[in-house]
Amino acid sequence: MLAGGTRIAVVMVGLPARGKTYISYKVSRYLAWMGVNCRVFNVGEYRRKLVGAQLDHSFFDPDNKVAIDQRLKCAVMALGDMFRWFEDVHNGVAIYDATNSTRARRKMIHDECLKHGVEVMFCESWCDDNDLIDMNIREVKRTSPDYKGVQDIQRVMDDFHSRIDHYSEVYEPLGGDGTRPLAKGSYTLPPTNPTLDEYDEKAVSYVRKINVGAKMVINRITSYLESRIIYFMMNIHIATRSVFFSRHGESMYNLDQRLGGDPSLSPNGWKYAEALPGLVSKLLGDQPLTIWTSTLKRTAETAGGLPYKKMQWKALDELDAGLCDGLTYEDVEERYPEEYAMRDENKFEFRYRGGESYRDVVLRLEPVIMELERQQNIMIISHQAVLRCIYAYFLDIGPEELPYLKIPLHTVMKLTWTAYGCDIQMYKIDIDAVDTHRAKPKAAKRGGTIKGSSGTGAHSEAPSRPLSSKTSASGLNAARNAGFAPAKPQGATTVKPESLVKSAFATAGTSAQTNGDASSNAAAAKVPLPTPPPVQPESVAAQSQPVDAGAVRSAFQTQQQQQQQPSEIQGVPSKLSVTGGHDHSTCENGAHGAHGAHVWPSQISPGITRENSPVHASSMTVTLGDHAHGTNHSFPGRSDPRQGSPVYLSAGDFASSFEMHRLQSGDGDMSAQADASGLSAMTKSLSLDSGAAAAGASTAESAPSSRQSASTAGHRQPLLAKQKIDELHVAGHGNVDIVETTPTITLRYSSDLPPDVKKQTVAMKNELVGIEDDDDSASDRSSTRSPPSAAATAVVDTQADPSK
Ligand SMILES: O=P(O)(O)OC[C@H]1O[C@@](CO)(OP(=O)(O)O)[C@@H](O)[C@@H]1O
């Protein structure tokens, strides 16, 4: 995933209790799961190791000169270890987790990173919601090693607030206050060795997550991976919620131990389908639930009796066994002995001829994971291999163990994640099923070529996890304890009584995983978990009484007939990420997008086309960098499971800054972003506040019908739907009105754009809407010209008061 030699330091910024450590470890786990070398360097650990844990707030007083030296020493040590780690792994992402609350500190880190050939992306978590802050302190800090043994929560709260106050005295938010538009001409690239005065944070890459994502500010993001990280950060939230997982009921192929295929359920599988609704309703009560299944019959049949909204994801289909589809393991060994042996050698990497590897499945599941991070109360009914990959993400299990996780049939697993951990519970329904698990052969590879190790690292004196370790033992143990280990005897009705906590921070090693800046100290501790649901073994047993499988089957068939076709699937999650990079755009699907502006359509569910998709784009990442040429890409439907709607965006030269606000409302946001990305072609700073959630008059609305005409105008089509842009500033271009029009977009710039930029802009707009370039006429249009209102889909008024 990373180009050779790519080294990125994500440098956290923020006052204590802003969730920096939570974000750090979530990002780290996500990247490791995606195969990226990743490690968290938590300065707090160094401080606790070098100076001690239980220091009161005076240690953080900016007038405490001795402490300041000690804190700096810790920061430098962590930085040194980070650079040594980069030398070991050659490429990867390090997350440098501390408050980094002053420009001087950030400049020091920035300078050092540049010296070591490491790209820097600052990531600030900014929050002024006192309830959230107090909740964070209360829930998290009381379990911190910094307050170990202190019973009096109020004392902890008071001390911690004092600590925050000390930091607040010197705290400087990233890039100024992040709300002022740049003054014209104020944008400067950093000199090679800037003084502190010259150090201009508007020139560095950063993202600000404001009030837990209510608003994101993204500045000068230049690489594909950075954009993925930001996109992930936009999606994570801290609400406590549960996800339920189950394999389909036993299938006819399972009975024969055959791979893949699209078989129906066995008689016992139908019984499981019958019993499932009772168990789920016991576990969930009246709460809403959405069921995600694969597109294969056995999962749809299993979900048939569940009275909830359902969605099918192609990405949840079982690992494709290619040539071996429909064979038994014995057949495979006999017919393809070499392949059979190779799979045993390294099951994660082995790709069936004409099929997939586990790594392939992980990659195609990324949109599912992203959506799971955003959603509440989801039940996934899928397959052995797919569920292994998903569990591995949540439990931070490495690629050697992942393909051997035990995912028993006829068992519901409930995973509840709180701010800092996961709780797994297993509910086995007492209906017989075969065991399809194959144990890991002795010859199986250990270590191997698989990349990805999340965790915290320290070569110096701070606690460390061996660099070679690819698997989180604690995650694995949690998984084993939770039932991934060999199954209980058949027929046992099991409700696992134990709640297993998998702290997000357990990935980092055995020591305290806390934040030296004390912003998230309680991360180290296992948080108390919610009381397990009131489901007793008896109640589960009640679900497993003999059932009329025939009735379930016919109910399912009726339901199948009534069910909406894919084109009518409701609530399809669609998200989109666009990056704009360097000199040109070559990337078609974003999968290898190291360069250029490109669209990542993978989050748009397969089978959902532009025409039929509700396209509830609730978030999106747009990143633009220097010299990104305006480019639009088409994504014609392909057999690739990642195929999605064609979406066209445009990224342009000199674009440097975006603000996005409340991206929650639906397709209007996506189109607004699409438009904004085009606008950025000639802006140095763009502030966009869009979305139905924002009150107030919209300045523009599109005519959906014009989409159709755009689509006939060429094979490329912008995803312009009913659109609201509540506020849009383009700063830095003076007050000259220029109206540019195209059949689908009208833009009015308050700008004194140079002619060549105008010309280029119009060309880009034209390309965006898929029409022939008529740049001369367009660039000559006068400011008094009216937009062709019937065809216009968006009017972007850049004359809005930039101070708003
Ligand atoms: O990777 P391995 O361990 O072979 O497990 C994947 C296999 O699991 C199976 C069952 O053996 O899943 P499923 O029950 O969904 O049909 C096969 O279809 C699939 O090929």
From TrEMBL:
Top enzyme class: hydrolase
Location of region: Disordered: 440-475, 511-649, 766-804
Keyword vocabulary terms for this entry: ATP-binding, Hydrolase, Nucleotide-binding
EC annotation from Swiss-Prot or TrEMBL: 3.1.3.46
Biased composition (Polar residues): 466-475, 511-521, 602-622
GO biological process: fructose 2,6-bisphosphate metabolic process; fructose metabolic process
Molecular function per GO: 6-phosphofructo-2-kinase activity; ATP binding; fructose-2,6-bisphosphate 2-phosphatase activity
Amino acid composition bias (Low complexity), ranges on this chain: 784-804
Xref: PANTHER family: 6-PHOSPHOFRUCTO 2-KINASE_FRUCTOSE 2,6-BISPHOSPHATASE LONG FORM, 6-PHOSPHOFRUCTO-2-KINASE/FRUCTOSE-2,6-BISPHOSPHATASE
Protein name: fructose-2,6-bisphosphate 2-phosphatase
Native species: Coemansia interrupta
Taxonomic lineage: Eukaryota, Fungi, Fungi incertae sedis, Zoopagomycota, Kickxellomycotina
